[in-house]
Amino acid sequence: MQKIKCIIVEDEPLAVKILKDYCESLPQLELIATFRDAIGAGLFLQSTTVDLIFLDIHLPKLKGLAFLRTLTRPPAVIVTTAYHQYAVEGFELNVIDYLLKPFSFERFVTATNKVTKALSSQQPIDKEAPIKEFSCFLSIDRKKVRIVFDTVLYVESAREYIRVMTTQGEFKAKMSTHEIEALLPPSQFVRIHRSFIVAIDKIEIYTKEEVIVQGQALPIGKAFKSALTRV
């Protein structure tokens, strides 16, 4: 198939550099322009057709999601932001994926592959699929709490409960690690012990005996040593 023509709408220079490097690492992507605000991007789109926008939410003058609402026939959109609370609104606007900063190259590839698959098959992108892959609801203190997968560091068994450690804090739910494992996307998580499941892109260091996630050492069970060949 032809290359996917994309633009970046992002006002943080470091984030632009990372996205440019990631785009240049994938032969199917052709980065044709970058913009620091949505107004410039909107003017560009009036005369130029693109296949994909990497769109930040917190932009000067016009916010990313507000800009997206102004487009009558928007191309595929991958949102890039540090704020997970806008994710549901983003998916209601039919964005393809939602990348929480800082995101890994592997996570970037997963998002762009969704666009590649949809364009190559000439089929509309399934709006429900990203939502299922993006988060789940857990029963916590008699309330349903949305857990965003990109924020999860690891899951630990605590007898009849689990502790879900995230970048937003700790959540405790009455369920087993087997039950939570069934909800987590296998492309993003790996079980390293009967009591621990870790987010692959949050692993900082690992040895034959342990994994380090944000300075926390987690043991590797004998039966799970081969699982780290995926990392």
From TrEMBL:
<feature type="domain" description="Response regulatory">
    <location>
        <begin position="5"/>
        <end position="116"/>
    </location>
</feature>
<feature type="modified residue" description="4-aspartylphosphate">
    <location>
        <position position="56"/>
    </location>
</feature>
<dbReference type="InterPro" id="IPR001789">
    <property type="entry name" value="Sig_transdc_resp-reg_receiver"/>
</dbReference>
<dbReference type="Pfam" id="PF04397">
    <property type="entry name" value="LytTR"/>
</dbReference>
<dbReference type="Pfam" id="PF00072">
    <property type="entry name" value="Response_reg"/>
</dbReference>
<keyword id="KW-0597">Phosphoprotein</keyword>
<dbReference type="GO" id="GO:0000156">
    <property type="term" value="F:phosphorelay response regulator activity"/>
</dbReference>
<dbReference type="InterPro" id="IPR007492">
    <property type="entry name" value="LytTR_DNA-bd_dom"/>
</dbReference>
<dbReference type="InterPro" id="IPR011006">
    <property type="entry name" value="CheY-like_superfamily"/>
</dbReference>
<keyword id="KW-0238">DNA-binding</keyword>
<feature type="domain" description="HTH LytTR-type">
    <location>
        <begin position="138"/>
        <end position="204"/>
    </location>
</feature>
<dbReference type="InterPro" id="IPR051271">
    <property type="entry name" value="2C-system_Tx_regulators"/>
</dbReference>
<dbReference type="GO" id="GO:0003677">
    <property type="term" value="F:DNA binding"/>
</dbReference>
<protein>
    <submittedName>
        <fullName>DNA-binding LytR/AlgR family response regulator</fullName>
    </submittedName>
</protein>
